Amino acid sequence: MKKDIITGTHQKTARYAKAISHPVRVYILELLSKQSCCYSGDLAEELPIARSTLSQHLKELKEVGLIQGEINPPKIKYCINREHWEEARALLRDFMQL
Disulfide check for 37: which of 4, 10, 73, 79 has CB 3.0–4.6 Å away? Predict the structure, then answer.
């Protein structure tokens, strides 16, 4: 039997890389990294995409843990999840130094 060569680190790195594989998601992360938080409505005004498309991009980023959302009815406030952000930075940096 072959040894499993895919580690947890490989899987995490791939998940973060997939999450940032779309230019809109890169832009959202860039925007959020420069401020403490942002409301989804503000993001919708900033980006020339449908709200449903924006919601899908936010969902992708939230599922991987790069952002977190806080519901303040009727708005949702999004922020960078610093713990996962730092983990992603370290994993991607290490991978790129191979």
Answer: 79
